[in-house]
Amino acid sequence: MQLYRKFWLEKNLFMSLIVLGEPPSLANQFLNEIRGKDSQQDRLRFRRNLERMGEIMAYEISKRLSYKACLVTSPLASIKSRELISQPILVTVLRAGLPYFQGFLNYFDQADAGFIGAYRKEDGEELTINLEYLASPMVEGQEVILIDPMLATGKSFIRSINALLSHGKPAHIHLASLIASPEGIQHIKENLKIPFTIWTFSVDEKLDNRFYIVPGLGDAGDMSFGTKL
User: Fold this and answer.
1) How many structural domains are present in the chain?
2) Domain, as residue range, for 35
3) Potential cystine with 92: which of 23, 87, 101, 196 (Cβ 3.0-4.6 Å)?
4) Contacts with 134 (C-beta within 8 Å, 6 or more apart), sequence order
């Protein structure tokens, strides 16, 4: 698969952006359905498409992980193969990330998992991120995949990573978003000081005055689970 990649090397940190939606694939069809205001009315299909996109991204990220040689014995013979040295740690932001996270868990089915309760608070032209819950294993020296379908301002990713650092410093962190904004990518690039890769299916046009991605898809949590009070 031909992928769009952008790399930065600053202050001895390796950072990259990988856009999986650039080459045509079935992922584009799933993303079209996730975006479409008519197909969004089918809440079950919306969640299932998020899950399928999580599976696709999990598979692509798996190509960047470390493997070791192994020997597999079938009923007829043995064959040399490769297997993951260790499963990544999966961390998702509640609640919008849950269907997307399930796709990753379907593929990394032996992975430890963490959960973060973070939400946005709008105050006029300012946006702050409140974080009230963190349940995570130790992440010291581990490959971590932080899963949130929308990379809008990038503030929730940075807030979540800063909280995770209380459980150790990851060897590398993969930021897994469905859709990203240029502003959010730039914010992460300026504020994240450990090696990371941003994974997304689409870098959209911009943020609007409410800090939503345009064209985006709306509120992923509301589309999955209903409007919150």
Assistant:
1) 1
2) 4-67+77-225
3) 101
4) 114, 115, 116, 117, 163, 164, 166
Does the pTM surpass 0.85? The reply is yes
72 within domain boundaries: no
Each residue's pLDDT tens digit, 57-92 = 999 999 999 999 999 999 999 999 999 999 999 999
Here the CATH number for the domain that contains residue 167 is: 3.40.50.2020
**CA-closest candidate to residue 188, choices 6, 2, 60:** 6
- Residue 88 belongs to a domain: yes
Q: Which of 66, 67, 102 is nearest to 176 (CA)?
A: 102
- The DSSP 8-state label assigned to residue 193 in this structure reads -
Evaluate whether residue 186 is within a structural domain. yes
Q: Does 127 fall in a domain? A: yes
What pLDDT, in 10s, does the model give residues 132-181? 899 999 999 999 999 999 999 999 999 999 999 999 999 999 999 999 99
Interhelix angle 43-62/98-107, nearest 10 degrees? 40
